[in-house]
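Assess this one:
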Amino acid sequence: MDLQLGMCFDRTFPPAFVLEVAERLESDGVDQLWVIEDCFYTAGISLAAAALARTERLTVGLGILPATARNPAITAMEIATLARLAPGRVLAGIGHGVQDWMDQMGARTPSPVTTLNEVITVVRRLLHGDTITFDGRHVTMRDVALDQPPELVPPVLAGVRGPKSLAMAGRVADGLVLAEGTGPTYVRQAVGQAGDPQPFRVSVFTIVCITEDPRDAYRTMAPFVGDLCASPTPNVRAHPHFGDIQDRWRDRAEEGLVDMPAEWWGQLGAIGTFDDAVAHVQALHDAGVNDVSLFPAAEVDVARRQMDDVVRLATALR
């Protein structure tokens, strides 16, 4: 599959901004928009519907629907509706959800991996037109079928990180969504832990910060990398120089990160010069990534300017 490039819609953006972003990306030839659903910010399904309704070509990804926030039959209904409104233009990401958030709203499950397995299994079968009777640890239903399953079934991707979740995703999902901080090393590791199934779609969110002087980008992104060092996730720990990065952060805080070699930054995001960003995205694609969606700054005015960078990258990588 050819590389598909896109942009993420930050959870804090005002909902109406999604119309401007979707129309701009489509008009300038960018492939995808991923809408971010985190508790308790803006909702993914409604943002996706708005973006799809205002475009004709743009693919819209749901990143990431928490498995227990909706009944899986309702999740399947929502995805099917989007897929019938915009055939072939929907990617559906489902994940565990942040467990503290799930606890806040009474939706925490004692076994997140088992629950996500059941949810993805049922959602995929419903989307494919099956009638489902299911008696699992978290999911139960009797004789449920969608009245209007999609003619073009969208891929259901698992937004996961850990080895048990990745192995589960390889058995039941159509692919993966990997979070910010992912480099090519982790992509290969994650696909391997999923069992290297074929076909298997891999989508990656990656931070974008492009400047003429790369040190300006490094200074801007040093707090982000510091946060990664403070609470490292498996994708960050897979960085070939993670131990050295943590040592720099502990010894000299953010100033120690600014001095990191460019190739270390290249494993963390599209950070540095425009050529550095191109190299980062290309390295992800070479590692087996199908979709790269660039994560802009949370400030709307900055994100507007960064759309120019997304468009430039989409043009350069065609």
Observations:
- The chain has one domain: 4-208+270-316.
- The first strand starts at residue 4 and ends at 9.
